[in-house]
Amino acid sequence: VIVAGIEAGADAVMMAHVVYPQVAPEPAGYSQRWIEQILRGQMGFRGVVFSDDIGMAASFSAGGVAGRVHAHLDAGCDVVLVCHPELVAESLQAVQGRNLNTAALIGLIGRGALGWDGLLAGTDASFTTPPSAHFGTTA
């Protein structure tokens, strides 16, 4: 199913908190092997990689909120899903000072992903802070 989706031009993939022990010892969303080697390398996926929700019990193997956020980003996820409002502040604090990979973002925009203005179009007016304000310096 994933290969067919990639071949059809899928713009995004969401990783699951599922362990496939013959491939990697950690959940797929925390695994560089799954994200960088298999999904991006072998399968040639060039879109956005989302984590699964860090509030799910299955995500707890990476530790606290900050540990989960960093584990997903370090594995290669582009976006970490924080679907529980009570985890948002701690998640944002976890990425303070972390460099934003602007080269990757530019690559996504070049493949047809929305720019920041496009993401803001039609959204809640309170969501107006550019991503660099949340992630510190750009790289």
UniProtKB/TrEMBL annotation:
<dbReference type="InterPro" id="IPR036962">
    <property type="entry name" value="Glyco_hydro_3_N_sf"/>
</dbReference>
<keyword id="KW-0378">Hydrolase</keyword>
<dbReference type="GO" id="GO:0005975">
    <property type="term" value="P:carbohydrate metabolic process"/>
</dbReference>
<feature type="domain" description="Glycoside hydrolase family 3 N-terminal">
    <location>
        <begin position="4"/>
        <end position="95"/>
    </location>
</feature>
<protein>
    <recommendedName>
        <fullName>beta-N-acetylhexosaminidase</fullName>
        <ecNumber>3.2.1.52</ecNumber>
    </recommendedName>
</protein>
<dbReference type="InterPro" id="IPR001764">
    <property type="entry name" value="Glyco_hydro_3_N"/>
</dbReference>
<dbReference type="InterPro" id="IPR019800">
    <property type="entry name" value="Glyco_hydro_3_AS"/>
</dbReference>
<comment type="similarity">
    <text>Belongs to the glycosyl hydrolase 3 family.</text>
</comment>
<dbReference type="InterPro" id="IPR050226">
    <property type="entry name" value="NagZ_Beta-hexosaminidase"/>
</dbReference>
<keyword id="KW-0326">Glycosidase</keyword>
<dbReference type="Pfam" id="PF00933">
    <property type="entry name" value="Glyco_hydro_3"/>
</dbReference>
<dbReference type="InterPro" id="IPR017853">
    <property type="entry name" value="GH"/>
</dbReference>
<dbReference type="GO" id="GO:0009254">
    <property type="term" value="P:peptidoglycan turnover"/>
</dbReference>
<dbReference type="GO" id="GO:0004563">
    <property type="term" value="F:beta-N-acetylhexosaminidase activity"/>
</dbReference>
